[in-house]
């Protein structure tokens, strides 16, 4: 091989690595044929070209402002929030959808599991300052969900319904959890009520052991499929679903239109993803009956006894391959989550 040929191949490889580094999670999913239909983050842009608002904060006096990235495709400009909220309190009032479909998350309404603690039976909004974090040295804020806190969109557009395939990932705080039901992010009922098995497909994180469990005492990444939290096909126990010990967690749940679903996870600050389950759905959960609403921090029926912290997450069309999820994990690691 000639020197020029070697140099050409080296340059091409370098350019490919640069492109992979600059692409956001939703760019990676889109290139693989699984575009994001919802993309939420209070910490950073999830598309390389996104420069819109990430979230809105509301001050105690009722005034609001939006927080955008420091630069296109970059980390949230935390200084905007810090200046606006100085000397008072703020809550996160809207988490904007970066996909362009308008699937924003706002204060969750009452559900069949009960009303929330806020006026009108709504759930509380998260404190805007309770979950500070750093991404490659830049300050940002996560969504700190205390019991009674919840976000929802019951009129989401483009999300999976019925037995359609979808993928979900989220980056979470692996040390903030409890055994309450249910700290979820994903697909749920459009009427805030429990409408039966298979009407949900959401990421769950915590150590609730009423339904399914994994190894040890948790916490675990599981799937909330309604009327049960599942760690695999068995309704109760999957020894392959480990207790999570990471400060930052990447959690993945995905379901195909065939009788196939999977749980994957890993350390959001380093390393790769592992597959904790991949196989048939639990008995009674195929075909699925997904409704397409989006929830964060609560169960599909507005069960709001859980706690956790959310940094970023998406919902896609189709059933993403392990390979594209591995690329997304590399992007998350490169984002440099730290305390």
Automatic annotation (TrEMBL):
Its EC number is 3.2.1.55. GO terms for molecular function: alpha-L-arabinofuranosidase activity. GO terms for cellular component: extracellular region. It holds the Pfam family ArabFuran-catal. Residues 1-23 form the signal peptide. It catalyses: Hydrolysis of terminal non-reducing alpha-L-arabinofuranoside residues in alpha-L-arabinosides. The active site is at residues 226, 301. It is found in: Secreted. Disulfide bonds join 26-36, 85-90, 181-182. Pathway: Glycan metabolism; L-arabinan degradation. It is an enzyme of class 3 (hydrolase). Keywords: Carbohydrate metabolism, Disulfide bond, Glycosidase, Hydrolase, Polysaccharide degradation, Secreted, Signal, Xylan degradation. Residues 25-338 form the Alpha-L-arabinofuranosidase B catalytic domain. GO terms for biological process: arabinan catabolic process; L-arabinose metabolic process; pectin catabolic process; xylan catabolic process. Belongs to the glycosyl hydrolase 54 family. This is Alpha-L-arabinofuranosidase. It comes from Neurospora tetraspora.
């Amino acid at each position: 091989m000639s020197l020029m040929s070697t140099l050409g191949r080296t340059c091409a490889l370098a350019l490919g690595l640069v492109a992979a580094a600059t692409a956001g999670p939703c760019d990676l999913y889109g290139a693989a044929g699984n575009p994001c239909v919802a993309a939420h983050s209070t910490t950073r842009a999830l598309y390389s070209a996104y420069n819109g608002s990430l979230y809105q904060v509301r001050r105690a006096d009722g005034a609001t402002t939006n927080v955008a990235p420091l630069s296109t495709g970059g980390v949230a400009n935390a200084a905007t929030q810090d200046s606006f909220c100085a000397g008072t309190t703020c809550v996160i009032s809207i988490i904007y959808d970066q996909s362009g479909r308008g699937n924003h998350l706002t204060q969750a309404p009452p559900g069949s599991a009960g009303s929330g603690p806020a006026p009108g039976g709504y759930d509380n909004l998260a404190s805007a300052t309770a979950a500070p974090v750093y991404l490659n040295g830049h300050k940002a804020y996560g969504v700190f969900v205390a019991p009674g806190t919840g976000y929802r969109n019951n009129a989401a557009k483009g999300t999976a319904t019925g037995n359609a395939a979808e993928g979900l990932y989220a980056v979470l705080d692996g040390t903030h959890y409890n055994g309450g039901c249910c700290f979820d992010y994903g697909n749920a009922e459009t009427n805030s009520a429990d409408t039966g098995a298979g009407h949900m497909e959401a990421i769950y994180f915590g150590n609730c052991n009423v339904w399914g469990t994994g190894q040890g005492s948790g916490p675990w990444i599981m799937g909330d499929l309604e009327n049960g939290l599942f760690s695999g096909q068995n309704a109760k126990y999957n020894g392959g679903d480990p207790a999570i010990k990471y400060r930052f967690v990447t959690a993945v749940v995905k379901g195909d239109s065939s009788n196939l679903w999977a749980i994957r996870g890993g350390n959001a600050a380093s390393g790769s993803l592992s597959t904790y389950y991949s196989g048939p759905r639990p008995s009674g959960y195929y075909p699925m009956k997904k409704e397409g609403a989006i929830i964060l921090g609560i169960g599909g029926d507005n069960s709001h006894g859980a706690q956790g912290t959310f940094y970023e997450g998406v919902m896609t069309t189709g059933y993403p391959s392990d390979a594209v999820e591995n690329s997304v994990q590399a992007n998350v690691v490169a984002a440099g989550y730290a305390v």
